[in-house]
Amino acid sequence: MNKQRQQAYQAIKEVSQGKRGAITKLLDHVGVSRQAYNKSFHRQETPWDAQERLLEERITYWFNQHHQAIGTSKILSNLNHDKLVTFKVTIKRVKRIMINLNIRCQIRIKKHHRIKEQEQYIQDNVLNRNFSVSRPNQVWLSDSTELTYGTAKAHFKMRLSGVLDLYGRVLIASNLSTTETAAAEIQVFQRAFEYAGEVHPLVHTDRGAAYTSKDFNNFIAGHEATRSMSRPGTPYDNSPMERWWNEFKTHWMDRHPMPTTYQEFKELVNEGIHYFNHLDRSPARNDLTPVEYRNEAA
To answer: Is residue 201 domain-shared with residue 277, that is, in the same domain?
Structure first.
């Protein structure tokens, strides 16, 4: 018996309480026999029914655990690591149950940037949109984004800088500063090299003043890293980093109340980075989190 029919029988039972003859009239209206109706309330739960009930509970749990910001594929990734789910689950089954539960991932509409590429800058773009890597610390992407905290009367803007290891999309270092300066970007890369050790990655950034400064490039050269920069007006050259910022803002910062103090703001940012590094499972990483995927290659 499907869930809609079961809900209909339950509704008939509740509506007809205390009203003589109401059940018979309602059953005639929907074209169901009294025998089928009575049998439904004595029906024992089958193994399939038990699985469906468990999946409804766990899908709802994981959807809420990830702030209602994950879709079918990521829910399946979490179910595959859920100790309570001891049977195989298909993507089709997850989709069906999500529809029945009226669960839908809330996402930001993708913006398309179609700016004509300029050939004269290709030699500076060493990465050249080759986002496929085979090991950690092969390619690091970096950028900064603006975040806000404060009250209705006073807002404060901060820059969050990050270094993203293209392998597994792990944010290996971050730094908060009031403006994007060479000093701030050097500091975040110092943390990245302290985290990764003696490595010599390809470092890809945009052409912001901080990244084209003499101090920053001398620092990168001192670590024997190769430099690469996006072409002017071409954000897609650094699209994995842009996407990370977008998901961080949409699926984390926007789903929490705005922090009113700097300490609250800093804690929320750090919690968000921990979430995306250690808790965000994806089928693109074999249902692993970024850190788990990175550690498998270590």
So the answer is: yes
